[in-house]
């Protein structure tokens, strides 16, 4: 994600992700109050981790919601007990702009804060260390891209495209297999780190059950961006080989797909799983410019690393022109993405 607080930063262009947190707020408060058992424990400290926190204000909002819910739970179930000290760990990859994130932390806050750099697809904390684990809009990022996407001899060679939407079934299958491996790794790591009576709440970007990858080919934001790159390749601004070797490490599961992966883990049980209420991109990003900046904030770093910074402005100018005539703007009801809320607990002590 773009760091800092500039015009194309993630901090200024993540209203859609904020909408997901706000849509989950009531459910998150309810589930913490109903399912978190504090009566059999004497907590001197309570640890919370936000996995894939990024660098904008959304993670601060999420933590505030969680802390408020915990205070409500404590006051209602243990009114005469002193509240524990809350420690919040903000996790993301090491190149995340943690400085920008920490600058957003309120000076008077009811918790201690620390940054934990590293991939959440591996262990980041000691065994049974976390009382509450949380992640929002992060479990759509792959740890690595399938190698067959850039293998010219593979049926999954993704020529002329930068994503699996609208691509061959082999490409979509390669993405799906990698996603399954990654989520299994994530769940294994968290099942070790989660305390015996801990909770894990996830908000996962996805697509509805029965959704076909080919349905996203017309008007897809990623397809539009890929077509802009191919236009630039035909004009000699970049090479076609550069486009063929570039794929976005993003995958959107269906609820059924995600449920099957979680159930195969065997160490965490699903206490609740549902699709959040409608999060309308047209409401959270009503203007064309906001839609362009949203995608730029998320993808610019990947594009700049692969193609160089010289093409960025031209690329997103082209993208804006195509987006203005796409179904994402002209027919917002065709937007197929959803947010999946999942609440998990441990089956037994690991």
Automatic annotation (TrEMBL):
GO molecular function: metal ion binding; methyltransferase activity
Protein's GO biological process: methylation
Magnesium recorded as keyword: yes
Record bears the keyword Transferase: yes
Keyword annotations: Magnesium, Metal-binding, Methyltransferase, S-adenosyl-L-methionine, Transferase
Pfam families named among the record's database cross-references: Methyltransf_7
UniProt xrefs under PANTHER family: S-ADENOSYL-L-METHIONINE:CARBOXYL METHYLTRANSFERASE FAMILY PROTEIN
This protein's name: Loganic acid O-methyltransferase
Organism per entry: Cardamine amara subsp. amara
């Amino acid at each position: 994600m773009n760091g800092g607080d500039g015009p194309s930063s993630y901090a200024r262009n993540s209203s859609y992700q904020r909408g997901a947190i706000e849509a989950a707020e009531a459910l998150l408060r309810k589930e913490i109050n109903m399912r978190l058992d504090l009566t059999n424990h004497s907590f001197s400290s309570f640890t919370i981790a936000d996995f894939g926190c990024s660098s904008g204000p959304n993670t601060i909002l999420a933590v505030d919601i969680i802390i408020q819910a915990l205070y409500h739970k404590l006051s209602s179930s243990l009114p005469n007990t002193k509240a524990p000290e809350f420690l919040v760990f903000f996790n993301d990859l090491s190149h995340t702009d943690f400085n920008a994130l920490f600058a957003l932390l309120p000076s008077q806050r009811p918790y201690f804060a620390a940054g934990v750099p590293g991939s959440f697809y591996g262990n980041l904390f000691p065994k049974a260390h976390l009382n509450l684990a949380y992640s929002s809009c992060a479990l759509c990022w792959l740890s690595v891209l399938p190698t067959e996407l850039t293998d010219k001899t593979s049926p999954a060679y993704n020529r002329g495209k930068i994503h699996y939407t609208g691509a061959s079934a082999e490409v979509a299958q390669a993405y799906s297999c990698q996603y399954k491996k990654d989520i299994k790794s994530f769940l294994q790591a968290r099942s070790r780190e989660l305390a015996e009576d801990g909770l894990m709440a996830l908000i996962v970007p996805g697509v509805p059950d029965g959704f076909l990858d080919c349905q996203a080919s017309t008007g897809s934001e990623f397809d539009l961006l890929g077509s802009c790159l191919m236009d630039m390749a035909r004009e000699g601004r970049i090479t076609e080989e550069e486009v063929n070797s570039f794929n976005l490490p993003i995958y959107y599961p269906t609820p059924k797909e995600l449920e099957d992966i979680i159930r195969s883990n065997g160490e965490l049980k699903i206490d609740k799983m549902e699709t959040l209420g409608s999060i309308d991109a047209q409401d959270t990003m009503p203007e064309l410019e906001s839609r362009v900046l949203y995608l730029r904030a998320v993808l610019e770093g990947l594009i700049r690393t692969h193609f160089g910074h010289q093409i960025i402005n031209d690329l997103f100018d082209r993208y804006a022109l195509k987006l203005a005539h796409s179904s994402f703007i002209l027919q917002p009801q065709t937007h197929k993405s959803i947010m999946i809320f999942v609440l998990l607990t441990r089956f037994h002590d690991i």
